[in-house]
Amino acid sequence: MSVVIVTGSGGLVGSEAAKAFALLGYDVVGIDNDMRRLFFGSDASTLWNVDRLERELGSGYWHFSVDIRNREAIMDVFRIYGANVAIVVHAAAQPSRDWGGREPSTDFAVNALGTLNVLEATREFSPGASFIFTSSSEVYGDHPNALPLVELDTRYELEPSHPFFRGVGEAMAVDACNHAISGVSKLSADLMVQEYGRSFGLNTVCFRTGMVTGKGQSSTALHGFIAYAIRCAGTGSHLTVYGHKGKNVRDVIHASDLAGAFIEFVKHPRAGEIYNVGGGRRVNCSVIEAIERAEVVTGKKMNWSYLSAMRAGDTLWWIGDNSKFESHYPGWKPTYDLDSIFVELHEANLDCWSC
Ligand SMILES: NC(=O)c1ccc[n+]([C@@H]2O[C@H](COP(=O)([O-])OP(=O)(O)OC[C@H]3O[C@@H](n4cnc5c(N)ncnc54)[C@H](O)[C@@H]3O)[C@@H](O)[C@H]2O)c1
Questions:
Q1: Residues at CB less than 6 angstroms from ligand 1
Q2: Lower Cβ count inside 10 Å, N or C end of the chain?
Q3: For the whole model, what pTM was predicted?
């Protein structure tokens, strides 16, 4: 078993996972039809990242421009590699809360039904593989908004004495709240991934992350806030901040640290697991704090304005608790902090601006 199938391989998480597993000696099969371009426009196309994988990984990378909504085409790819598939990283998705409400049917078809197609293909042809699903803190809907948050100068925050100060655990309820359309499609997929672990014994896992970032992200106004903010600061483009006075908080994980968590999981896979994995209490920021950092790292004043209208289903505060994952996988050692994330994204953007 020497093959890793990565869906969404042109995207932020998929490309980082592809590189990480290739470095370990796996052959990587990528599936990505550049649908991010359809969602967010040509600026957000991920073709450049597929080109980069093909260049950097050479004969260790095979690409299929296949739509995960196309069940037969997905089956055909898995049929080729069959029992040689050791790991499936399923990261192809419609990832934006805002875009999901524009086309609920497309959002659900990609996120929920697309996930079912990839699960079915794994069950049929590669049942011994570890199945890693990149879920989201969106599955908890706006439940975190019920936490007793206090308003500080630049962020909402919990009192240090609150049991969730170090982060929200997996026991938070997932229903009877507002999810926005994309939160429902992610939760549907997340539940199905768990179920394939329970009902069919596949080694499935859901990683529920807050904000993921990294230089492999094709950032856009609707998705990829930190990279987009740095680009706006650097280029002088305008940035709109929606709601919560810009004090809403997310934990932030670099995609390579997330890929590091995938690597730990596949060493000792389990069936039907869920983990909150992210920057946690160590790496997090509010929108305003991100803007301030973007200004510092670029040395330029940001051209931004504020709209009080909130995004549907948006959460005021998300810091996840990594404890469960860390206790199951003590070998996981994330390396990035906010400083290194902002510096890396700025340097990567400099390359783009000059080309
Ligand atoms: N980036 C974040 O901040 C974040 C946070 C929480 C959860 N997640 C989840 O992680 C996963 C990966 O996110 P990302 O940031 O890498 O997204 P991304 O948009 O950068 O990558 C997703 C890739 O999937 C491809 N894709 C989309 N629809 C497809 C389809 N129908 N068939 C084939 N390919 C398709 C896109 O072209 C894109 O390259 C998603 O499930 C997302 O919901 C991301």
A1: 8, 10-14, 31-36, 46, 67-69, 91-93, 95, 110, 114, 134, 136, 186, 209, 211-212, 217
A2: C
A3: 0.97
